[in-house]
Amino acid sequence: MNLAKESFYTLIFQISGFLCAAIAGIIVARMLGPENRGILAVAMLCPYIFFVVFNPAIESVIIYHIGKKEQSIRAFAGSAFMLSFAFSLIAIIAFFLTFIQFRESLYKNIEQKYLIIAISSVPFYFILYYFSSILRGNIDIKGYNISNQLLNFSNIIFILIFVAVSRLNILEAIIAGISGIILGGTYALIKVFKMAKGIYFDKKLVSYLVKDGSKLYIGSIATFINFQVNFFILNYYTNPSEVGFYSVSYAIANILLFFSISLEIGLYPRLAHATMDEAIKLTEIASRQILFITLAAALIMSFFSKYIILIYGGKPFLPAAESLLLLLPGMVILVIPKVITALWLKKGWFFQLTLIAISGSIVSLVLNFLLIPKFGANGAAMATSLTYGFIFVVEVVLYMKYVKSDLRGLFIPEKTDTAAYRDIIEMFKR
């Protein structure tokens, strides 16, 4: 299956997942309101924080080493299982220590029961990310998509059940949210175990994974800061309602990334198995096509931003429309770095990617602390777009220096690109 077909089928999964997420988001927003929606956003972010902090960022490294074909899938399965258990145990212990010591500052406005239920999903975060990476590295894109989209499918099913039984509350929304992590992780685990036909623990492979992952570790934390930390800064400086406004606008703006994510999922494992010249050519094709699609989608979204917010959350969420408009430029230019990053991973630039992420996180923190106290949710949106702009400039400059000085291949569509669209049209006909 070629990249266009893989990206097409992935896009189908992404669209299906988006529809489920959109329906779930509308129900949650309308039933909880801005304040409780903000509390939910922070509570659901807590387990992901502890996953990021105590995960040595081995997901991309797993794909990289599978591409080298030096170890069997059985070795990857056994090593990933052991690492999942060890790191999740450390993460949960760390959560309870921080909860005891910093209850009022780190977890402001969040009830204890919400946090404990949410944190129970941490082991499944490790399992989902590690084992779905094995599927992706083995170019089982269908299995990868199913494991990751179970999050949205399960979420909407549980939400509808809770709505049918009683009016949805925060605790029920959290249970619905973590159900997908649990089911997705379980599916990926079973799928890999069946594929591997047994597992074994390989100390040498674990050493490679942790060593190479450690080069990306600080970068993964920095990336989290770039994308998510403003939720906590908003919660600290403002109130849950502002968090609710931003969470809704951010969720809607992220729809634009579905196109690039659909392509990335198939792109990186393809690059890992390709020659460098082939990888550069694929990167250019992917970049210019996804930029065109994302820009067109962003323009449409900007014209109908208020109507989208009204449909999503109703009049109480209308202040989020301005935040959405401020986020759109950043989302458009972010797709280029996301595509180019796959090429850096192909080159084994783990440490360099960490430096890029660190510089972006510094810019993000400075902008968030400057803008959020004054502008609230709009400040968070401005900080996000400006940070993405900074990352865009850095990645493009690096591309010019180490790959090609001619950037037309990244930005300007070519006649040959229509072949990919013809493939997609033919797939629809079939």
Give your account of this protein's structure.
This protein has helices at residues 3-53, 59-68, 73-101, 103-106, 112-119, 122-137, 141-165, 170-196, 203-227, 229-237, 240-253, 257-273, 276-303, 305-313, 320-346, 350-375, 377-402, 408-411, 418-429. By secondary structure, the protein is mainly alpha-helical. The protein has one domain (3-429). Helix 1 crosses helix 8. The chain starts with a helix and ends with a helix. The model has no long low-confidence stretch (mean pLDDT 83).
TL;DR of this structure?
The chain has 430 residues and is mainly α. It contains 19 helices and no strands.
Please trace the helix and strand order, writing H or E for each element: HHHHHHHHHHHHHHHHHHH
Query: What would you call the quaternary organization?
Result: single chain
How would a crystallographer describe the biggest sheet?
none
Quick one: overall form? globular
Strand content: under 5%
Radius of gyration: 21 Å
| Secondary structure tally, helices | 19
Number of strands: 0
Q: Structural class, judged by helices and strands?
A: mainly alpha
Q: In total, how many domains does the architecture comprise?
A: 1
Proportion of helical residues: over 70%
Average pLDDT reading:
83
Span between termini: 15 Å
Question: Which ranges are low-confidence, i.e. pLDDT below 50, for 5 or more consecutive residues?
Answer: none
